[in-house]
User: Fold this.
Amino acid sequence: MTRFAFVTWDGGGNLGPAVGIAQELAARGHEVRFLGYKGQRASIEERGFPCTALRQSGGVDLYRDVAAEQRLAALLRNVWACPEHLEDIPEALVDHPADVLVVDFSMQGALAFARQTEMPVAVLAHSAIAGLVPPPESPVGAARLAATNQLRVAAGLPILCRLNGAWDHLLTLVTTIPDLDPAAIGAADSIHYVGPVVERFPAQTWDSPWDAEDSRPLIVVSFTTTKLWDQCGRIRNTLAALSDEPVRILVLGADASDNIPPLPANATARHFVPHGLVLPSAALTVTHCGHGTVTASLAHGVPVVGLPNPAADQPFLAARLKQLGAGLALDGESPPDAIRHAALEILSHPAFRDAAGRLAAVIRATPGATGAADELEHLALAGSSLS
Assistant:
């Protein structure tokens, strides 16, 4: 039995793959604990894993009601380049010893600690590296790199020319397919693409309001449920776009308390339904293009209309889907007419579904959580982070 500690934060799409890998490790008899933030502790503990809030940094409310620029500054200071992680993580490991540390790719303070410890450390990147890591010449990339180098200098570590340099020679598990990530070309041997990892849920059903004989195409509307972005406008525009079309609409991540208009006759909303229950019968997904929703759709051969939020990997993935012929990328604030046109174009041209089907075959061939757990077990046996 090996003790694994996952260092993470409440970034939305990063948690599902971490939990999916943790579930596989636990099923093999290993012990798993999460180290992170108070705001995510209840959610992780509901999944059956202990979660320790980091002493100094873990009490920060990452989603308090502030302006976007203040929120980004808080994320930079308290997550992406947090000096306190250099103290908080070893302190947590004294109270809860671990044999292997698995660190979220974005947490540069934790990655700096990885260079100071003798314990094996792996890095977890939940989406395409080319989309996750901002270029150093971009405003966000420059700010993150400067803050990272400031904490590294204070820790006696060499500065980085690029954020990815923090992972050099560390086992890095990337839970996507190379087709979605141009950074896979020429990637170092320490970077392993294991494919999408899906969290396991207890056996569930969902109460579809439609007759089994209803042949209208099913469109799944699924936007982020994190508090970083208000998705109500995207949902309203999508409903307005499709309300008069001969389709069925399932809105996920919304319920009656959300600020969305009354549902049209061809739509229903559910707060949560596992993608695996509905996507096998879907014809199209309309989404913000978070990696989890994108790869869940592609895994079932479902093309995508992307309405990305203007950050993280979402614009990148939307554009990549368009390049691969498996979807169309729109501005996230597109009006109903544009959304309607894109949806009908995909529904009327089988080439989009064919392209999504080809990517589904690629995803089926990946090892996913099983492969990730294999790599982590090998790292534990080797006893060293460096390759």
The mean pLDDT is 93. Residues 218-364 form a domain with the Rossmann fold fold (CATH 3.40.50.2000). The longest strand covers residues 31-36.
